[in-house]
Structure formats: structure tokens, C-alpha cells
Amino acid sequence: MHNSLNVLITGATSGIGEALVNHYANENYRVTACGRNQEKLSQLQNITQLGLAFDVNNEKDIGLAAAQVDYIDILILNAGDCRYITNPMAFDSNLFEDIINTNLVSLGKLIKHFLPKVKKGGQVVFISSSATIVPFPQAEAYGASKAGMDYLANSLRLDLVDHQIDVTLVHPGFVRTPLTAVNHFNMPFIIDADDAAARIFNGIKARKAYLHFPKRLTLTLKFMSLLPRKVWQHIILKDTNSRETIK
Description:
The protein is an alpha/beta fold. It contains 8 helices and 9 strands. It is globular, with a radius of gyration of 18 Å. It starts with 5 loop residues before the first strand and ends in an 8-residue tail after the last helix.
């Protein structure tokens, strides 16, 4: 039984976040679900101890939400967005800024207010993306934000050693979520959100520093990253066809 352990999950009202809420609740953890969708948070209230409605870009609301939390054993930073730069010659700087703010800058606000709530011996989990293993077309905004998250997680891990708080960085491949539902390209080895949640849960429980899946995809990408640039660039541009990208 883990009913004395508190897990807080951002981006909890859809996709991987919602699947994580259900998985942790089924494992008898005390779940705090965070998201913008108040209606969905209300639907989850029968399996959560607390629902906190806020936008990750609004620090005032984050602070008010954090004030309602006594302590956290596992902090899962999962909230994020994905949109593409479809024309590099008409670079959408507003879209770029929005994605960087939502996926990366917001983490500073969340860490500021929620990390002090994490108990000694606790964990902080960053849900990043396997898109950071090699560059992909049209992913200038999304990939840059997730690459920044990777560095943040790996750096924070070093600074939290003295505080006895572990950091787990997660690189999922393609997962069936509302974000990937709009993709009109082949998504190899795609898995369901429930499958992703189970893998993440097990990785966190094992206190892994780094977790990537499905390995048929992530190991392929890691191998490609070792090839000469011209080789993997040719493979990616050929396989992505219309210059779409991974998420």
C-alpha cells in the first residue's frame, strides 16, 4: 500500500498525464491532479485527493495552487504542448515563444513553487521527448523546448543530491494522445497512453535517472545519432516524407 505517498502530476487532464493519474490512483497513491480543464479535474475527483486548476504560464495561479499542497513525494512535470514551424522562411516567432514558454519557461515557475514541497527522499520527474535524441524537421520550437528540459533535469539532478531528492528524465516515443492525434504521418511503434503510464510508473518506482521507451524506437534514434550527420539527415528527411516530425 502506498496511500501515504503523495504524487502531484501536471498536465493531468489528458494524454499521458491522465493515464498517470489513473495508474497511480489504482496503485493507492494519493494523487494531486493539475491542469487547466476544471471540468475534467472534477471528473477525476473520485480518484484524486486534490484537483488544482491553473495554467502553467501563470505564476500567480501556480503559487495559489502550491499553497494548497502540504508535501509531495513524487512531482511529475508533464504539462506541455506541441506545434510545428511549417515554413522556416516565414518563421512563426509567436508560436516559437508560446511553445518555449509552455514547455520550458513554465518549469522554472513550477519548480520555484512546488520543489520546496518535495520531501527529502522524494523524486522530481520530467516528461520530455525522444525528439531530443536527433533533430527533426519542423520541430524547432518543440524540440528546442524539450532539449532545454533535458538539460534542466540533468543539471537539477546534480544540485538536488545534497537534498536527497532524485530526478528522473523520461523520453517517450510516440504515444496515442490528443497531441499526436493531429499528426498526419507515420508514427512507428506508437503505444497507448496507459502503456506509457505503466512504463513511467515502473521507472519512477525503480528510481531510474533516465527512462526511454519503446526501445525499438529510442535505440534506433540513438544509433542514428552516432552516424555521420549527412547519413542520419538523409534517413530522417526520407522517412518523414512531408518533413513532418516526431512527438
